[in-house]
Amino acid sequence: MRFDELYLAAAGSYLPAAVPVDDAVDDGRYDDLEQVDSGQQEVTVAGPGQSPPEMAVPAARTALARSRHRPDEVDLLLYAVTTHFGIDGWNAGSYLCREVTGGSGVAFEIGQQSNGAMAAIELAAAYLGASPDRTAALIVASDRFPAPRWDRWRTGWGLVFADGAAAAVLSRRGGFARVVSAVTVSDPELEGIHRGSMPFAPTDAERFPVDFRARSIDYGVTASLDEAGKRVVAGMREAVERATAEAGIDLDRARHVVVPGFGRALLVRECLEPLGIPLERTTWSWSAHVGHLGAADQFAALAYLGESGRLDAGDTVVLIGVGGGFNWTCVVLDILDRPSWAA
Fold this sequence. Notes:
alpha/beta; 10 helices; nine-stranded mixed β-sheet; 21% strand; 33% helix; Peroxisomal Thiolase, Chain A, domain 1
C-alpha cells in the first residue's frame, strides 16, 4: 500500500549489555564453525529486571519523547512479542498503555513472530486513516530468549537469539521520515516449518528448549525443504518488489537496507543474494554485535541509524521483515530531515 500522509516521527530502543560470542564458543555452547558462518561477535543478554515488558517500557518512552507527540495524542498502541512475556493470562499491551501513554489510546498485542512490528505498520496506518481525529500510533516490540525455554545458541540455524526492545511512533502530523509504502506477503503453507509434527498440548512446560532445527527436519520428512526454501525467498522478494514498485523506486536507490538480525551466511542466502544487495548497504555490521532481537530488529536498527547520524534528508531507507508462518513485510521510507535526536 502506498501512503501520502503517513510519517515516522521517531524510533527508540532498549538493549541489555552485550556478551562476547567467543565465550559461548569457548565453553561449548556455540559451535565454532557456526560462529564463522554467522559472523556474530556479540549478543545482547537480559538480566534481572529485564523481562520483555520491562524492556519495552523504556524503549517506548524514548520513542514517544523523541516524536514530540504528547502521550494523549497516541490513539493506538501495538505490542509485538514472540516469546513468553512473564505472566500467563495477563494483558501486557494494557500494561504498556498504562506505563507509557498514561492510558491514552487502545492497546493490542500482535503475533506474526519476528515480523510482528513490521506487519503492525500497515495495521496502524489503517487505524489512523479510519478517522480524521486520530493522530499517532506507538508500535513496540520486545523479546527475551532465556534458558530453559530457549537455547539462544542452538534453537535455530544461522542466527543467535538476542534480548531487547524497540519502538517507533507513526504519525499523521509529521516526522523525520515519510512512510511511502508498506507491503506484507504471507505463505501459510510454510507454517509447518516451525511446527514439524508436534502434537498440540495443554502445556508446553516439558517441551523446552524450543528446537526449530528439529522441527524443520521433521517437516522435511513429508515436505520438500528445497521447495520450502524457494518459497521463503519468493515471499520475501515479492514483498520487496511490490513495496519498491509502489514507492516508485529501484532498490539500488536505497542508502540503507534494514534487515533482520540473522547471521551473515543466512542473511546472504535468504535475503541479500536474491535481491542483489551487497552486505555493506545493510545494517548487518551493527546486528553482528547485537543478534536477532525477534520482532524488535528493524526498529532497533533504525534507532541506531538515527542516533549515529547515518540518516540525512533525501535518503531512502528500505526495511525488510521476515516472520515464521511465513510472512514478510517491506517498508520504504523517505528521510525528510536529519533526526533531532541524532548524535
